């Protein structure tokens, strides 16, 4: 199950709260937390905690909130279903997981990604991301949505006070025949360009490195900043994603397992400078074949 520690915020509660807050700003732009609380007949700190993810509202609370702000029935039902599903486990599908991904990118201070099979989504070009989702056999409309979300996530790397991002990529990923050589060369050049940003660190795990069983699939670990003068902080979150859903882990014991795997990846990865040089050599080989 998804664990939420005392004094921290759970991924699903934060995601739901962000969706509620965004809906209020969209459908009732002149409202405040206090004005909505008055209409609901509750204390304004209650609504504030819902919107920030400090407290997960009940489905009936979400329904009342959405009615008060004038949200359409479709949007109301979407968030009510999210509230109901948030108690059954950490799996998020479609709309819920997209919101969770974007919210983590918006609020995290640092994101570490270990990529043993594909280039990390935060560093993918549009053609590469589209090829990834096309190969999964998804419907065309879902592919468009997922590509848009993936590209949207990347804004966290270039915003003011950008996300600190560390990617550890297994060397064979650079050679995978997912797209044509010319497009792959463009993708690899994008890796090099992004790696020059002070907040982005791209490291290659060489093929000669000893394999770690923890790298059997991609994962990322997000850490969050201290939020106030009292030191209230959201605990780290591990994200595991597959083609139909996403899994978020917050139990400290589970998180530590993945943090340990990430440290082992860092220990065997080559430096950012060596990685850029290696990627450049692969680019040259791609260009020679086009």
From TrEMBL:
Signal peptide: none annotated. GO terms for molecular function: DNA binding. Residues 32-76 form the HTH cro/C1-type domain. InterPro entries: Cro/C1-type_HTH, DUF5753, Lambda_DNA-bd_dom_sf. Pfam families: DUF5753 (PF19054), HTH_31 (PF13560). This is XRE family transcriptional regulator. It comes from Amycolatopsis eburnea.
């Amino acid at each position: 199950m998804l664990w939420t520690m005392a004094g921290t915020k759970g991924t699903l509660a934060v995601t739901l709260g962000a969706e509620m807050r965004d809906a209020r700003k969209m459908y009732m732009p002149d409202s405040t937390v206090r004005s909505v609380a008055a209409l609901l007949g509750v204390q304004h700190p209650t609504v504030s905690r819902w919107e920030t993810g400090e407290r997960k509202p009940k489905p009936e609370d979400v329904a009342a909130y959405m009615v008060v702000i004038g949200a359409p029935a479709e949007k109301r039902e979407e968030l009510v279903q999210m509230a109901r599903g948030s108690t059954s486990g950490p799996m998020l599908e479609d709309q819920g997981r997209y919101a969770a991904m974007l919210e983590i990118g918006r609020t995290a201070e640092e994101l570490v990604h270990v990529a043993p099979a594909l280039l990390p989504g935060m560093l993918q070009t549009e053609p590469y991301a589209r090829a990834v989702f096309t190969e999964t056999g998804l419907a065309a409309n879902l592919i468009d949505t997922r590509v848009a979300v993936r590209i949207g996530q990347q804004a966290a790397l270039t915003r003011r006070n950008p996300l600190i991002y560390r990617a550890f990529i297994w060397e064979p990923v650079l050679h995978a025949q997912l797209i044509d050589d010319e497009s792959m060369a463009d993708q690899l050049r994008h890796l090099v360009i992004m790696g020059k940003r002070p907040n982005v660190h791209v490291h290659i795990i060489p093929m000669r490195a000893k394999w770690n069983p923890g790298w059997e699939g991609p994962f990322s670990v997000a850490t969050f900043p201290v939020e106030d003068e009292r030191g209230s902080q959201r605990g780290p979150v591990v994200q595991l994603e597959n083609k139909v859903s996403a899994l978020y882990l917050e139990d400290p014991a589970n998180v530590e397992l993945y943090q340990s795997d990430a440290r082992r990846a860092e220990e065997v990865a080559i430096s950012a400078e060596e990685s850029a040089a290696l990627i450049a050599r692969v680019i040259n080989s791609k260009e020679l074949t086009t």
